[in-house]
Each structure stands twice: as C-alpha cells, then as structure tokens.
Amino acid sequence: MITKTKKLLSILLTAALVASLFAAMPLAANAGSVTGDYILFLHTDGKLRKNNGSGEDITAAMSAAGATVSGSAGQWVLTLNNFSFETTANYALKATTGTTIILTGDNTITSSWHGMGITSDSGSITITSSSAGRLNAFGGDKVGSASNGIDIVNTSTTYVGSGASLTIDGNATVNATGGNATDSDGIHVGDRSSLTITGSATVNATGGSAERSSRGIRAVSYASITISGSATVNAVGGSSASNYGSIGLDTKSTGCTLTISDNAVVKAAGTSAGGIANYGISYNNSIELSGGEVTAIGNSGAFTTTYTVPSGYTYWTNTTATETGASGPFTGDGSTTTVAYLKDRYARIEVSGKIPPVITAHPQPQTIVPGGTANFSVTATGVTSYQWQYSEDNGSTWKVFENNQNYSNVTTANLTFKEVDDAWNGRLIRCLLNDIYPTDSAILTITVSPANAPTIIGPSAMPLKEGYAATSSGAFTITGDPAPTVTKTLGDAKITWNDASKKLDIAAGLAEGVYPVTLKATNGNAPDATLNFTLTVTAGEEPPEDEPPDTPPTPAPFPFTDVPQSAWYYYDVKNAYEMGLINGKTATLFAPNDNLTYAEAVKLAACMHQKYTTGSVTLANASPIWYQSFVDYAKANSIIIKDYNWSAQATRAGYMEMFAYALPDSALAAFNSVPDGSIPDVPMTHPQAAAIYKLYRAGILQGVDTVTHSCNPGSNIRRSEVAAILTRMMDPTERVSFGM
Question: At 460, which CATH number?
Fold first, then answer.
C-alpha cells in the first residue's frame, strides 16, 4: 500500500512481463526427480498411491524423493522438499480433502494435461510455507484437451453445491503455467469452486500457448476468487490463436465473484499475441475493493468491468500510458465507478483499506519540569488503532513510543510520559490513527531550572537464599540539583545504604523472610523522592551428610548485544535466558521489539511447564516444523486444546490463554482482588476471560496501564514484555500486588 505522498512503483505489464515474471525465479536442483504414467494421489489413509485409493502404495519411494506425509486422518500434511514429478497422466498431483501441502525449497509438478488437480471429490486443499518454499505447476501439451497449471474443478455431474477449494497462504510462492493444448490457463477455477490467496503468499499465473483461451487465472460459472492479506498476484495471459483471448485475470462467466482486500497487490496483463480479446481483467460484475491495489493493462483494454469502493475508504486511480501520475486521494461512497476502457493504458486503483477518523481534539503542547510527567491525548471517532510517536528533527522523521517504565498507554488515546528529562525539550509528539492518519503535532517544552527536585530510580526487589554470602543490590540512579542526600528510612540493620557505590549492601546472616526497605532522597527542593525495595530470603537446601555442598555452575555469559544493561527489561530477559525458557532470534540478537508469534508462545508455555515439573528444560526444536515438538507437548499436558495460526503474531489474549495453563493452579494462586467484569475491556463473555482474570489475580499481569488496568486483549505483545511475564510466572516474589 502507498500513502498520498508515496511514489507509485512502475512495472511494465506487457508481453515482456510474461518472460520476466518467472525469469527472476530460477529453479533449484530437486532432491528427487520422479517420472511416471500415473497420478500421484494422497489417499484418506495417508498413503501416497498411484491414481486412486486402490492404487499401488508408493509412499516410501516418494518420501525418498522428497514427498513425505505426516498428520492424521482429515488433516494430512504433505511436505514437498525440492521434489519433482512428471507424468503422462491427466493430473500430476491430487490429494484428499483437508490436506495441507507444505513447501520447502523448489518443487515442480508437470503433467501432459494438468499440473495439479483439486476436484470436488478431493474438497479443500491448502498450500503453505513458512520458509518461502515454491511450487511450480506446469500444464502439458495433450492435443484436444485442456492443460492448466492448476485445475480446480467441480466433478459433480449436476454441478449442485460447492465445488473444489484451494487456499494459498503463508510465505508460499506458486508459479502456475498453462501448457500448449486447446485451453491452457495458469490457474483454472471451475464451476462453483473457489481460489483464496492470502497471508504473504505470491502467485504468478501465466497462460500457455493454446488453440483457444490462455488466461493467467480463469474462473467459470459461479466460481469465486478472493485475494487478501499481504498477498501478491501476477496474472498474465498467454498466446492464444483465436478470439477467445489472452486475458490476465478472467472472471467474466455468470455469477463469478472477485474480492480484493487488506494490503493485497494484484497486477494483470493481457498480452498482444494471438487473439483480439486481450484484456488485463475481464469481469461481469463490479470488483469489491476494501483494500489493496489493482493494476491492469491490455492491448484490447485494461478492464471490462467496474469497481466499487466502500463508503469512507480512501483510494487513488490512474488511467495513463504509464503507471505514474495517479489521481487522488478520493473517498469512496459505496457506489459503482466505471474504469476507463482504454487500449494500451494502465487502469490502476489503490484503496487504503483504512477509513479516515474524525478528530475533534488534537494533542496539546505541554510544559513541564525535568523529571515531571506529561500527558497527551486525542479525541476522535472511527478509530481502529492508536500509536503515539515522537520526532527529534522537527517532524522530518518519526519514532514510535513503546510501553515501558517511563511510557504507558502508547497504543491508546491517552499517552502518559513519566520522568521526562531535559533532552526532550522541543521534541514533537503526535498520534497515528488507523495506521496512516496522523494528528497535529504538539511540542513538549522542558523548563530547566538551576535547582531541581531529587529523583531516585533503581531495582525494586531482590531474591536471596538462606546462607548467602554478603552481597549488594544493583545500583540506583539519583539525580537533582544540588546533589541529593540518600537515607534509609525503613529496613533491617543488616541492609545499609552505600553512598559511594549507590547500592544497598546486604550483610550475611538474614534468616528466611521478607525485608522491606525504603530509601529517601532530599536536596531541599520539593518534593522529596522515595523508593521501595524488597529483599526476599528463601530457605536454602541442606547438603547431605558426609557430602560437600555442590559448587554452583558458572552461568553462561549473557549473549544478546541488543539488550543493553540500561534497558528496563534487561534483568527479565537475562533471568528467562538463564532459566532456559527463552532464546534469541540468533546467537547474539534477542530482538526485544519483535512481536511474539503463537509458535514462540507455545514454546515458552511448554518450556515453563517442563521447567516447573522436572526442574530442567530438555525440549528441543523439531524438523521440518520447528515448533511441532512444543505443540505436541502442550497438547499432551493440557496446556492447549486447539491449534492456532502458529506463524501469526500472538494477541495478548491468545498468549494469556496458553500461559494460564502452563503451570498448575497451585502455582498461580490468587492474591489480588480482581472481581468478575472489573477489567474494562475484558467482559466475562470474552472467550479468554477465564485465563486473563486468572493471571491478573495471580499477580502475573496488571494491564497495559496502572490506572484502569485495561488489558488491550486484541493487541500484540513484544518479546521484551514477555520476558518480564516469564520472570513473574517462575518467581513468585516478582509478582505484582494491586487491587481493582
């Protein structure tokens, strides 16, 4: 998607695209190449057979060549790993309904007729990949028949009810090319069948060289095509020798539907070779556009259709000889708009997919003293998301606020900014609404005075085991002008303030128990600063008689270069890493600002359970699906009872649903008073309400702010935030006490 100011990308959708589209994607050498005269068929029993369910079992041979089967009845998984199969049969590959085909590396299937077949007797098939795997499906040159790269067809003799269904999602790339027969479409969607392309999938569909039609993608009677998510579709007509045409994307038959939404990008080209009906997109009805962008060109005309933009959505259009110079933005009103019927001209429509909000109150300028608190707010209707931002260069570039000990409510209408230092003087603050619409910016002014009130920040808790040696807390930071004096106003005599090291020194000999400490900083300027610190001493383990005590192992060095010791989440990440609960994205990078995925969440839940129940973590990644071992463990131990979209970013409610059952109920006993219905955005009818309230009451969570304790259950969570939650899950002394 582009915004109003983003330059339109240029791509020449002409016959040259047919050659260039796939030339940029060379095929890798296949692990195993198989030829034959039969259909490779995945049967309901999970066996790969010749032609049909009663055919010869060739599972072992296919596995050796790179086609392996896993899963269970109704949910079979066919993994293709650099696999190649060529046959003289009418289909190269078919599978039973409910099958998921996972792509790894480059895979090629070729038939004399159709490369891959999805028929109504095989129902619903999904092609996916988490590693940018590719499937190349080629139609053949069978004289007098169709030769489609992928054939999705209703085999019912009455054509009643639903036909076949193909979904392409994840990071899969599918290259479908028609052959040289009578009709040769890249992808053919038959009567009442459907094609869905979503996620981050890429589909390149090219018609072949046919006596009649050679479309990139073709849908016939009552078929549907849905393109959504961040999918990319390139549909190019082939070379047709007749008036049937070489259309890029053809959905002109009776009752067909074409829906494009979210951030999908669709490019369609009719070629100039062969027949005369060479359109970019041919369609009887109005294209429904609620997001994404569509570009079409053809030597007969760009479109033979109209399009509809829902009321309130923003869009741009372009009908020029080049892809630059778009007009807009315009605001959709739900009515049907005619696309210019231009020969050799681009017809381009882009829809933002975001309805502009109505802002009634912008953020206002703030003036505060160093160490003070700033509050910015926005009032608007029609808002689906908030993100507060700041600029250090007078608005040239913008950075996002992230929730931490200084910033809170950064994805709500009200930003709270605590302990502001004078480096923020003159910076601009704004809020981005619905991902693309900014408010007016407000300047933040810090009044610097010769005399400043004191501040004290530092660790708030520390655990020790009985019998410990004399030690010290982490360092505290004290600021103010003149320099403040720090005194301990509450705490055991064995815990003393060390003004030189700015630490609390803890003498040996404290018995098991909880030792609260209060520090006070004064410098004659109001207000004084205080900090509460809690030392918890737990019972030590007695060594067996006649055996020397074990020497504790030296922990491995903390490896993550992107987690500085000054970061608020440093100790949480370090603790979780040393407990074996969390790893980095690489050996040296933790990626604290990346959002947690469901696959990462189930790994953490499984590892916490194993650590708690056995004392160590022995679970390891599986292959080829790295998270499968953790999913299996979580199901076996009743941590989860369903599957998630494992590659998707986890919502707060989603990960809470797993974490609430990662430890036994006795380990998550309630000590906070959180009455039913008291969390503002989690009614008891919410599907994850039980899990969310359980974690609030156990002190694992207290919400995205400390005033209303809102949960924001539909938002994502960063890996740095998860580390803090892991610490509270495994160390009860770190849990948060509050009431609602």
Answer: 2.60.40.10
Tell me the pLDDT tens digit for each residue of 67-103.
Answer: 999 999 889 999 999 999 999 888 888 888 889 999 9
Contacts of 546 (CB under 8 A, 6+ apart): none
On whether both 246 and 269 belong to a single domain, the answer is yes
SS3 (DSSP) at 218? strand
- 3-state DSSP assignment of residue 18: helix
9: pLDDT strictly greater than 80:
no
Q: Which residue has the tokens 């020790």?
A: 464
d(CA 553, CA 541) in angstroms, rounded, equals: 16
80 and 65 in a common domain = yes
CA distance 67 to 85: 10
How many residues in the chain?
740
Q: What is the mean pLDDT of residues 162-190?
A: 86
Which residue among 446, 480, 501 closes a domain? 446
CA angle 585-590-593, nearest 5°?
105
Using the structure block, give the residue that is written with the tokens 């240029």. Answer: 10
Beta-carbon contacts of 545 under 8 Å, excluding residues fewer than 6 positions away, are none
* 96 half-sphere exposure, CB direction, 13 A CA radius: 18
CA distance 199 to 170: 5
Partner residues linked to 429 by β-bridges: 390, 442
In angstroms, the CA 215 to CA 282 distance is 10
Is residue 408 located within the same domain as residue 512?
no
- How far apart, in whole angstroms, are the C-alpha atoms of residue 226 and residue 249? 12
Residue among 496, 493, 471, 486 nearest 519 (CA): 486
Q: Which amino acid is at 119?
A: T
Give the model confidence (pLDDT) of 603-639 as tens digits: 999 998 888 888 888 888 888 898 999 999 999 999 9
Q: Is 575 left (phi over 0), alpha (psi -120 to 50) or beta?
A: alpha
The structure's pTM equals: 0.48
Q: Which residues are paired to 296 by β-bridges?
A: 268, 347
Distance of CA 307 to the CA centre of its chain: 30
The residue segments making up the domain with residue 379 are 358-446
The CA–CA distances, whole Å, from 112 to 115, 143, 473 equal 8, 9, 75
Residue pLDDT, tens place only, 221-249:
888 889 888 899 988 877 765 434 456 67
Residue with tokens 């070729």: 110
Q: Which two tokens stand for residue 144?
A: 């007098």
Find residue 293's DSSP bridge partners: 265, 350
Q: Residue 354: how many CB atoms within 10 A of its CB?
A: 19
User: Which residue matches tokens 């060479």?
Assistant: 278
Closest CA to 124 of 73, 93, 163: 163
CB 184 within 8 A of CB 209: yes
Residue 672 confidence (pLDDT):
81
Which of 705 and 81 is assigned the larger pLDDT?
81
Find out whether the peptide bond into 527 is cis, omega within 30 degrees of 0.
yes
